[in-house]
Amino acid sequence: MTKLKKDNIAIIIAVILIVAYVIFQFYSVSHIELVTETATLSTVYEKIDATAVIVRDEHVIENSSSGVTVPSVNNGDKVKVKGNVAMRFSSPESAEKYSQYLALKEQLAYYENLESMTVGQVASVESLDSEIAEKTDEYVRSISSNPASSTEKGGEINDSILRRQMLIGENVNLVSVIQDLRRQLEQYSGAKPDGYIKTDESGVFTSYTDGFEKTVDYDKAEEMSVSDIKNTLKEFDTKKKNSDNLGKLVTSYKWYAMCVVGADEVKGLDDGDKVQVALKDDDTVLTMQIVSGAQPQTGAKETALILKSSSMDSELASLRKENIEIRISSKEGIKVPAAALHVENGKKGVYALISSQIKFRQAEVIYSDDDFVLLKFDPDDKDGVRLYDKIIIQGKGLSDGRVYT
What we know:
Elements: H1 2-30, E1 35-38, E2 41-55, E3 58-61, E4 68-71, E5 78-79, E6 84-89, H2 92-115, H3 125-145, H4 147-167, H5 174-187, E7 195-198, E8 203-206, H6 226-238, E9 247-250, E10 255-262, E11 274-279, E12 284-292, E13 302-309, E14 321-337, E15 342-344, E16 347-354, E17 357-362, E18 365-368, E19 372-375, E20 390-394
Antiparallel strand pairs: 1-20, 2-10, 2-14, 3-9, 4-6, 5-8, 6-7, 8-9, 10-13, 11-12, 11-14, 12-13, 14-19, 15-16, 16-17, 18-19
Helix pairs in contact: 2-5, 3-4
């Protein structure tokens, strides 16, 4: 009898577990928590994605054949005809000695300038205290984000502290510091370059070279065909980079970005149009003009789209093969996942959760792709989507007026 009771209890427990499991599975399938997304304005672009060949009028500057060559200009600096771009030294020791000479000279100028400051140049102790606190904060942040700049930030703090000491009348002995620096400079009085590397042209200097500077003839850039661009891109993938040069000089501000795109992608564009071009790797956006390719030949499947720009800096001087986004037009609206769009009573719209109640908001789709839709936003439309609505992007059993608990 006891054994029979135990068997019955085991059966009952097993049945209860099975029923509980079935109920749990049914609940998991049928009941999905609502997932919402706050409605905010977004901008989307009708765009063409492409890989571009970058062509500039650039000339490599070779290193000196002997000794040590040190650039005398920074990346992005403009160099005049016959301007110095580098210094030549007979040995690394000579180059280091001259570097120390320049550093001491800079320190001396700094302290001489500090000594010449008058109290009248400073507004108040309070303003300097605020300046010191701000620069200290910048110094702390620079240590983690940009260690190379932390030395400069530390010098700025020291500058402010010294000026504060001078303002409140503390005895700041700059004379001995200046005299010591002058004595050190005398030891380096003979330090100087053995010669200079000069340029025959004017342009923007950059120390970055990659060996592709002459891959495309700059004077024939506007004549590049679809096959020319494709072959150049392949060459960029196989040719080894050359880092043996001192740098290069970009001698024209006008440069080109050329890519192969589908002929159907340029519909609505004309040669001569200006478009926004985003560089995907660093989020830079440039205004560029279409030179050719926006009006492909009848029946062509692809076109060589060539764009030009007149902007130039050290970053642009280093571009070669770039993933770009050519923005044809833009639209602003409320961006939601495509799954959030529903139809109720023959009208398109989305469901919003308003104070635990589901409300249907009518919506006009102004742009869509496989993943999302952009809804028109009209602040005067009382039935439409409103800013900061909690749009339901996942949920079941949705209907207008339903209370969700």
